[in-house]
């Protein structure tokens, strides 16, 4: 299910939702066609590029009945394809992606008519082919499970949260030096989520508790031990209406203006916390199960997405949601071992007729493998735009994301996996572009640098490692220690 929260400023205070809608998305299946876009390997791929090939491996595909959604295909091509003059096909030759050498030569001769300049799409076409598959190199190693790993918006900082009460903030631009070593307060089970404020001054962290704590990360103190070296202010999301029930918070996010927090909890609710008033300004009982994830659909902060239970298309619960940032498309990771792409505009207030999928098995994702007989099941009212398979979503709430807009045009999606790997898929074709293997335990979170071909993966094995595409194949300057390299790409 999804939660839409609209806030027309002319009708209500900035913090109060005016219209709320709860319901599944709804698509017109007749409008869906079929098309295929494939990645091809250039002759010089082995020299300069990541080795991205054209074939998809078994178990990795897009469902044909949902493959072609003309708008998302077109938008992705516009953001990540070079000028048509660069890609003119020579008669009798197989069409290949435009090489970097050809584009540079074309720019120098003003081939595209842009005055010797690359467009944003030209840049994305080149940068998106240098995938972060080299390595890995060790960033840090802890003796407890890693649950959260996130770059700041500008990529200058990196935040990692561990089950053993530690949250570390690394300064990426200063050799991954630990800028803040936070020992969390009143931690229950683990750090479930963290969020850095837009101005990068404050960090909030959540656990299986109604208390979210906020830390001043801009202070000069490196060691931040709760209420010993620094104060970690507690933000109480509980109320008298809870009747003493103690719930946990799975997901927490700053609003784009830094004035609010939105959170998803184990009491089936979405919360909005007003930081200026220092109180909960909204609680919505949005679902009938745990709200595992929340995010904003766009930069306005007027539309919130949440995930719980079963989306119309997923057969099992949703573990994570990531928005494309355009208020239209988002992806969800599901315990049915798939990622699905959705168009939010197709939602309606009238859910389709209830239709339970018949299951002849009992299963709990926390400690059981996914039943083989369930892998080919499909929801009869699947309204997603596309489905991606190959990774595994077990044991924990594994996260998935769109690749960065600036460097890749969001032409990929990527995810951690229970099989200790990171998977990268092509958004349009569904091909499994790369599988990064190093870890020995589930990869709950991973994050792609917003500007450079750098990806950090964190695992329950305690390792925080960096994957890159260095310019000349050398070890990155920021690296501490080279770790055993095991990666596959197609």
Pick out its properties.
LEC14B homolog; WD40/YVTN_repeat-like_dom_sf; globular; 5-stranded mixed beta sheet; 5 helices; 31 strands; DCAF; 33% strand; 490 residues; mainly beta; disordered C terminus
Walk me through what this model shows.
With 490 residues, the protein is mostly beta strands. It is built from 5 helices and 31 strands. The protein has helices spanning 45-48, 70-80, 100-108, 120-127, 405-408, and strands at residues 2-6, 19-23, 134-141, 146-151, 157-162, 166-171, 177-183, 193-196, 202-206, 211-216, 223-225, 233-236, 249-254, 260-265, 269-274, 279-285, 293-296, 304-307, 318-323, 329-334, 338-343, 386-389, 400-402, 412-416, 421-426, 432-437, 445-448, 454-458, 463-468, 481-482, 486-489. The strands form 8 sheets. The protein has a 5-stranded antiparallel beta sheet, with no helix packed on it. Strands 4-5-6-7-11 form a 5-stranded mixed beta sheet, with no helix packed on it. A 5-stranded antiparallel beta sheet has the order 23-24-25-26-31, with no helix packed on it. Strand 13 and strand 14 (260-265) form a beta hairpin. Helix 2 crosses helix 4. The chain is globular. Mean pLDDT is 78; it is low at 1-61, 63-67 and 485-490. WD repeats lie at residues 242-283, 311-352, 436-468.
